[in-house]
Amino acid sequence: MNSGTGIQELMAAETRASQIVAEARIARGDRMKQAQVDADELIAAYRLEQQEAFDKKAATDGGEGSSTSAKLQAETNKDIQDMQAQFQSNAQKAVDVLLSKCCEVSLEVPSARVRSTQKLYG
């Protein structure tokens, strides 16, 4: 009977050990989840702090930025107008050059072509 009791004690100890291991795994999972929640909170707070600092800096620099933007827009518009004026002044010249090249047809047959044709049909 002593050996039967020993086996039962071993089985009970094994059951307790597996319960302890399972509880430890659950506790570890809970700690990991809590650490993730804490980290997310810290990240959100840091992100909010940095966004507020950025917004504050953008608000203080906003006046300078808008004048620079307006100046850049004016320069861009002037460049566009200059390019359109150049296009208008050069458009007819470009058309004339293209037409002159298209309408220029040489009716003279090269002498090499004449000689080769004479040899073939001779």
Strands, helices and their partners?
Layout: H1 2-103, H2 111-121
Structure report:
The mean pLDDT is 88. The relative contact order is 0.03. With 122 residues, the protein is mainly alpha-helical. The protein has two helices and no strands. It has helices spanning 2-103, 111-121. It starts with a helix and ends with a helix.
Q: What's the gist of this structure?
A:
The chain is mainly alpha-helical and 122 residues long. It has helices at residues 2-103, 111-121.
Key descriptive features of the protein:
mainly alpha, elongated, about 120 residues, single chain
Largest sheet: none
Silhouette: elongated
What is the N-to-C succession of helices and strands?
HH
Number of helices: 2
Span of the ends, CA to CA: 129 Å
* Range of helix content: over 70%
Q: Helix/strand-derived class?
A: mainly alpha
Q: Overall pLDDT, averaged?
A: 88
Strand coverage percent: under 5%
Number of strands: 0
Could you list the spans in which at least 5 consecutive residues all have pLDDT below 50? Answer: none
What is the rounded Rg? 45 Å
